[in-house]
Amino acid sequence: MTTGLSPEGTSTATAAIGVLIRGHRLRIGLTQRELADLSTISVRAIRDLEKGKALRPRADTVRLIADGLRLGPRARAALEDAARRGSQGGAGRHQLLERCAPPVPLHPMIGRQAEATVLAEELRSGAERLITVVGLSGVGKTRLALETAARLHDAGLPVLWHTAPGTASDCLPHDGDPLTALATTCAAHLRLPDRPTAPPHATESGTQHLDGPEAAAGTPYGFGGRDAQPPAELLAALGDRDALLVLDGADCARLDFARLSRLLRELPGLRVLVTADAPWDVPGERLFLLAPLDAPRPDGTPSADAPAVRFLLSRIRRARPDIVADERSLGDVARVAHGLDGHPLALAAAASWLTVCDLPTLRGIVETDPAPLLDHLSDGTSGSHLRDGVTRTLDGLPAGPRDLVARLCAAADADFDLDEVVRLTGRPLPDCGRMVRALLIGGVIRPSTDHGRSAFRLLRVVRALAAIPPAISPAPAAVAASAAA
């Protein structure tokens, strides 16, 4: 019986002899020492082959290794063919990986240099191998991931980039990327299988039990595929090389931690960067909270250096290049930036309104009721994207934090601290601390240092959208009358 990596699952452009040997060895769970004992080949020779230092092994060496791996005829033939091609396979694989670059962003990054530096260094050094960037929809998670991926690519790491279907992406994908399909395959491998439609059955105690795949998918951390093999083409393409996999806009509730753990074990150089609305909450995850851009205090001296002001000015230039950043206009820009809490997508939407109103009018609307401004005039999808994202985040909150948001919306639009949360909810301090943490992770509040103390602010974007009443359905009587007519 053939075991291990099959030649059909491996691209001929990447099937170097060492990659095939390593793939077969890992598939059947052998260490290099164990393979050396079975094949009578030295550990050093096997290590050199797997690392690409030896590209043309002797025919009897290949035969002994194939015997040790217990390969069938087809896998043995693929191994012998890779040995005959010698350095061509290694060179092709190296050139292929060098071309794996992240998508190209459409706009420069503003105000995230510190965050990008931290992420790039943690991933480059291998200090963190799984980082999840979370934040409110439209806060700039994808743009930060693009910058981080670009820095790592400049440092020599190939980047496999996958954008989840339906995710808004402000970038130009590399259509010619030879491993785009591989990134898609890897993302599909990490997704939990769909649950069956059969309902669970209840025991005598009233608890429900799940059978089959649904039981596996419902276990902690999403252990839905313990026996699933990593994609053969991914093992063949990367081997021991350092690489970055980006899952942009991932739904962490649908990711399989068991499969990721195995992937990280078998690809020791792989790092994974995830952008999501909510954390994965799995062992080894580095949670990176992304807050909106820093905005200036409204009572301070206007300055064009604040990140939120710089971002808003860049969007204003696109809508109204005639607006000059003088002292008066900077004051209005600073107040708009502060009124929208430095939220990038909200600022971009507000700037689009300058095609139909002036800057003082825009400032007045923001300070009165910013909700109408959250729809981008030139792009109807941006407004719904922001509204849907905020709604999804609020709906996903536990009952306690969701109730706290409702109380904050009913209270004055001001900063609050833990003492105020205790007063509003009447709950113990530890419970209040956990609720505030949940809101920070969801991105619906942000830390505030306006008054030199530890405080928080409910985003006005959240306050505005949370206060919008749902669409009113017609009364049953009206529906009946319309039907009768």
Descriptive overview:
With 485 residues, the protein is an alpha/beta fold. The chain folds into 4 domains: 91 residues, 434 Repressor (Amino-terminal Domain) (Orthogonal Bundle), CATH 1.10.260.40; 159 residues, P-loop containing nucleotide triphosphate hydrolases (Rossmann fold), CATH 3.40.50; 72 residues; 84 residues, Arc Repressor Mutant, subunit A (Orthogonal Bundle). The radius of gyration is 27 Å and the shape is elongated. It starts with 16 loop residues before the first helix and ends with a helix. The N terminus and C terminus are likely disordered.
List keywords for this structure.
485 residues, alpha/beta, 434 Repressor (Amino-terminal Domain), Rossmann fold, 4 domains, five-stranded parallel sheet, two-stranded antiparallel ribbon, 9% strand, disordered N terminus, P-loop_NTPase, Lambda_DNA-bd_dom_sf
In short:
The protein is of the alpha/beta class and 485 residues long.
List the strand order in the largest sheet: 3-7-8-2-9
What's the CATH superfamily of the largest domain, by name?
P-loop containing nucleotide triphosphate hydrolases
Number of strands: 11
Tally of discrete structural domains: 4
Q: Please mark out the parts with pLDDT under 50 across 5 or more consecutive residues, or reply none.
A: 1-15, 87-95, 196-225, 470-485
What's the N-to-C terminus distance?
A: 73 Å
What is the CATH C level class of the largest domain, in words? Alpha Beta
Q: What is the alpha-carbon Rg in Å?
A: 27 Å
State the helix count. Answer: 22
The secondary structure category is alpha/beta
- What CATH architecture of the largest domain would you give? 3-Layer(aba) Sandwich
Q: Which percent band covers the strand fraction?
A: 5-15%
In helices, the fraction of residues equals 40-55%
- The averaged pLDDT comes out at 80
Could you describe the largest sheet, including whether it forms a barrel? 5 strands, parallel
Task: Give the CA-based shape.
Answer: elongated
As for the CATH topology of the largest domain, it is: Rossmann fold
Organism: Streptomyces bikiniensis
Protein name: AAA family ATPase
InterPro entries: AAA_16, Cro/C1-type_HTH, Lambda_DNA-bd_dom_sf, P-loop_NTPase
